[in-house]
Amino acid sequence: MFGISLNKAVEVVQKIKSSFSRPIKLNLDKDLEAKLLDFSIVKGAIESGELNKLMGIYQKVLNADLNLSGSLQNRKNALLALPHEIEAGTKEMKIITSMLEGGFGFDKFLNAIHNDIYYGISLQNIIYEVKDNLVLPVRHKAIMPTSLSEDTTKDKLYFQNKDSKKLYLESIDTNRLIIHTHEIDNSRLATNSIAYKLLWTSILKHTIITLNLEFIDKAAVPPLIIKIDDLNDTKKADELFGQMMELKSTSVGMFTKDIEIDTLKMESKVQFDTTIKYLDQKQNEFLVGGNLSGSSDGKVGSQSLGSIHENRLFEVVKADSKLINETVSRFFNQVIALNLATFTPVKFSFTLPEQKNHEELKVKSETIANLTTAGYVVPTKHIEKTFNIEGVTFKPQAQSNNSIEFNSQSNENELKAVDENIMNYIVSVVDECNSYDDLLKKLSEEYNYLDLEKLEEILTKEGLVASLDGSVEAGNDAKD
């Protein structure tokens, strides 16, 4: 019989279940939802060092910042769109297959893990049942990281249950609570998350938008300004004030008519848009490696910009996959350990595509073109390996009228190779030529990528023209 005894399986499930009951959400700052997120609130949370207060701000920022949540979604999509594979033996794979086909919802499990990397930690509450003498996970429920608190004296994380008692994470059965940590550095959880690294940028953007909206709201109803001849005429002044207040303006002022008054006007929205766009760009650079619509300064082509963005996103996804691979592999092995006394550890991994480095390929392509122009023969096997193209063959093509010129910085060895190549050809055809012009014609047909002036320049080096004239004449004499 595969698996363990039914009684043993039931006992295991009960033991796991009794180790943990889903915690209530901690009482965060009740006034936070009603407050504007400004620097004073953030400063207070950081100075207090209380994890649950910081988590509350992280959640508020994420809900308020569409660009932040959108970039996180793009980062998640880039990873979860990849195929994955599981390396496992026959017995181990049977257990994993039973779990995946038993309604556990593995794709949702991966999605839930990635959802909380913003907070630096993901908590998954796993429910087990006995199926065919196997202890298998059948459901999972994500626990918001905002439920966590930190005991800084013990450097431990804990939940607080209904009795206000601390339930430390380390005391919970690791099969019941799957913990995934997504650390940016080695500092404590409160400061090593993506949320903390982006906090000031997000708060600055939120503050700018909030204050701008407040100004627009106040400026929507302009102030009323009363100019009278004599401010000492209190009776007239009181009458005018009473009349103006009936108009429900936000503010009323009274001055003598000879005083010049200018009201505050909103500056151009260009500066506001530029600032918000810059902060969005910095968020995108941190989260997904770049921003195609806003990171170019006009000096970089869209193709190059796209290549840079693609390579940076690849590195981000690669780093995310490495951390999540470890967590999922650990989870699978824990499930197998509940059912097998001995087993070979399984390995889960996302299948990453080959990284496309367009700039590197461009340099290699230009190098091959330069070597070919200089007279070298590049093996087709090397081209196939470099560009991952099978069945490369050479097909001569007519050259354009644009000649290829060697500049003064050309490599001396490459020029020497061209000269030697041409001299070898001259030796092979000189007997067929009746004149120097015939020889030059043959050379121009063979080396059609060089114009006549450049060929004659090569031939005249070190007296080659005179030698060739003599060789041609000697050949003609021999024919006579």
Please give the count of helices.
17
Stretches with pLDDT under 50, minimum 5 residues: 23-35, 292-305, 398-411
Helix/strand class: mainly alpha
Q: Any idea what the radius of gyration is?
A: 38 Å
Structural account:
With 480 residues, this protein is mostly helical. It has 4 domains: 6-197 and 315-350, no CATH class; 223-262, no CATH class; 357-395, no CATH class; 399-480, no CATH class. The chain has helices spanning 6-18, 39-48, 51-64, 66-80, 90-100, 106-115, 194-197, 199-219, 234-245, 269-288, 302-337, 358-373, 380-387, 412-429, 436-446, 452-459, 464-479, and strands at residues 84-87, 121-131, 134-143, 149-151, 156-160, 166-168, 177-181, 224-228, 252-256, 347-350. A 3-stranded antiparallel beta sheet has the order 3-2-7, sandwiched between helices. Strands 4-5-6 form a 3-stranded antiparallel beta sheet, with no helix packed on it. Strand 8 (224-228), helix 9 (234-245) and strand 9 (252-256) form a beta-alpha-beta unit. Mean pLDDT is 75; it is low at 23-35, 292-305 and 398-411.
Please render the helix and strand layout as text:
Layout: H1 6-18, H2 39-48, H3 51-64, H4 66-80, E1 84-87, H5 90-100, H6 106-115, E2 121-131, E3 134-143, E4 149-151, E5 156-160, E6 166-168, E7 177-181, H7 194-197, H8 199-219, E8 224-228, H9 234-245, E9 252-256, H10 269-288, H11 302-337, E10 347-350, H12 358-373, H13 380-387, H14 412-429, H15 436-446, H16 452-459, H17 464-479
Parallel strand pairs: 8-9
Antiparallel strand pairs: 1-10, 2-3, 2-7, 4-5, 5-6
Helix pairs in contact: 2-3, 4-6, 4-10, 4-11, 8-10
